[in-house]
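ingest -> fold -> write
write: protein_1
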Amino acid sequence: MDWLQREVELWLNIFAIDTARYFVGVGAVLFVLFVLARVWSERYRIQSRRATRADVRREISWSLLTTAVYACVGLFTVRVEQGGASLIYFKVEEWGWLYTCLSLPLVLIAHDAYFYWVHRALHHPRLFKAFHRLHHLSRTPTSWAAYSFAPGEAILMALFMPLIVVLMPLHVSVIFVFLAVMIVRNAVGHCGVEFHPRWWLDSPLGFLNTPTHHDLHHQKFNGNYGLYFTWWDKWMGTEFENYKAAFVKAASGGEPVAGAIEPSEPAAER
């Protein structure tokens, strides 16, 4: 019973941290866009349709269930580390400052590849309804949809962490920053506002994802699967052809791009 109590207490601590990270990350994005820059962001909305209060309640409810699932996988990851099976390190001197700094972009690149292929697989007809349809109930997503996953999808997304820590040496501070970047990037991708300038896609930074890129995924479903970068979508031919036009329109502050389709339920990848 003492063992079970310790496990429950650790799970509760991890759950509290993951939940706080969700609310702080999403809250920060929403505060900047819809409080500090409310008038400006209204001009650069991507869709004309607005999410309802019911949409937001659903997104928050399922996101809280996701943080509970993440806490279970986090508990497993902690035990993996304590069992000596992970490559997590606590002193920068073990791998040096150069590697420690480079490991952050490396883990983001690895996570982007993992996310792309898992996300694309979840659009297969045999997996979509059970794993991913719930996330696509957000036809016009808000930042609260960042973790709005069915339990099966939440498990698949969370498994990246125990996998990467047994394959790649990571300092604890890098893990902390990575997790912060992940939630903020998710919140930004679902925010519904295109805050990048018009020249973004034609610049050297064009490989970095934009809110329009992921918003089109929620509108059309079968394309634009990437998280941080557009590389995989370009390489695999899954980037929507109208992405640049939709981006320029949203970034120009013109008429918003309306939700393009109204199917009875999202179509899975064929």
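write: protein_2
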Amino acid sequence: MTDFNTLFGGDITQFHFMRPLWLFALVPFVLFYRALVQQDDLVAQWQPVMSKNMVEHLSLNQNRALMVSPNRLFLVFSVLATLIMAGPTWQQQPSPFFEDNSELVIALDVSDSMNKTDIQPSRLERAKQKINQLVELRGDAKTGLVIYGGSAHVAMPVTKDKELTRYFLDVLDGSLLPDNESKPASVLKPTLELISQAKAPSTVLLLTDKTNDQAIEEFTKAFEQQQHQVIVWAMGENPQSGGNGTVGLTETQLASLSQLAQAGHGNMVSFTHDASDIEAVYQGIQNNLFAVSDNALPWLDAGYWLLFLLLPIQLMWFRKGWTLQW
């Protein structure tokens, strides 16, 4: 059985009914409820031959005075039962035979600015640590690695070997490149070549602290017709977090990095000192995979949980004197 975290973890904006025609059953239920109410309305029945005040003083209708009555609970029961049959849902459930064929191509900026120490020991070293944690979280998913500064180069082809990723990360730094000026647009050619053979929507993950207008423009053109996405992981102390008194990323830099991610119809994730940024990046990768790759995934029928609301209502009819006049 699906747990509550899975059940309520979907996108509520996708709410719909799996069997919407069942909602038409509400019409006869409402009409029948109105008939029950009119049947118990002594004032309406006797008003043609007796004044309203006199009927009210002479009649005794306990069910009508109660907030909880058989008639009203019948209506609640009918509405809930109809909603259950209609099958409310707002998320898809992965198939047990689903295989993750997506690729994650990590583009790591090793330019001079990544050696700043606003986050200890440096932006570059923390980026490596974050990558290792992300790769560990993803398990045996396909991962490739590109490094860039003034130029970009494939450091590791796409592989499922986590240990290989860790080995390559340990030896990467700016001394490997002839030009240490950061040029994010240079990563387009090697990253797109790596994901060109991907069998599922994939992700290009940039770990950097800066970008420019040229990169934003070129990423917009390159990803316009792509199912793949770009996630930018901003490496640097976020001005919103307070930091440790050192100068980190400015609001302008963060805005530019966000534009770069949006150019690849993705999101920017800011660096955090805990694991929340890793979770955000991982969730962004998964969301792109499931949102685009398989629209045929079955929808999770959440109506079954409403059965627990029907049980106490049904138990009320075991009370002495609780009947409905059909």
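write: annotation protein_2
Strands lie at 16-17, 88-89, 103-109, 142-148, 152-159, 203-208, 229-234, 268-270.
The radius of gyration is 30 Å.
pipeline exit 0
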